[in-house]
Design goal:
99% of the residues lie in helices and 0% in strands.
């Protein structure tokens, strides 16, 4: 009986060892599962961070692209406005030149008209002088003829 008790105690001790080994394996498996879970969580977290970073890069790229496009549009607008100002300036210069040329042409026309009038008055004066000279010459000739006739008649009367 003692041997049975010894065997029972030995069985009990072996069962306790097996139970202890089983507990250790279970704890080891739990630890391995925890490590695997932690790794999986870390991998998941890393992927999440990578996705977040990628999304942030995409947002930043799109923001930078929008800013570049906005700057490009602003530059194009500035160039267009500058060209419009230059065209307006040139148009204004052209209008001033046309106005000045019109003034010059008007002044030339006025001078030409005045010169024509002066020439016409001068011609009229010369024509009048000529006419007066002709009339004077005719009057002198008439007076001479009259005087000659009177002289002839007086001589004849003598």
């Amino acid at each position: 009986m003692q041997q049975m008790i010894k065997q029972a105690e030995q069985l009990k001790a072996e069962e306790a060892k097996m139970l202890e080994a089983k507990k250790e394996r279970a704890l080891k498996m739990i630890a391995e599962v925890e490590v695997a879970n932690k790794r999986a969580i870390d991998v998941k977290e890393q992927r999440k961070n990578e996705e977040k970073n990628l999304e942030q890069q995409i947002v930043e790229y799109n923001r930078a692209k929008a800013q570049r496009e906005e700057e490009k549009q602003a530059e194009l607008k500035r160039i267009k406005e500058e060209k419009e100002r230059e065209v307006a300036r040139l148009r204004e210069l052209q209008e001033k030149a046309a106005d000045r040329q019109a003034e010059i042409d008007a002044l030339r026309a006025k001078r030409a008209f005045e010169e024509g009038e002066r020439a016409a008055r001068e011609k009229e004066r010369r024509d009048l002088e000529h006419k007066q000279k002709v009339l004077k010459d005719m009057e002198e000739a008439r007076q001479r003829q009259f005087f000659e006739r009177e002289t002839r008649l007086a001589e004849q009367a003598k």
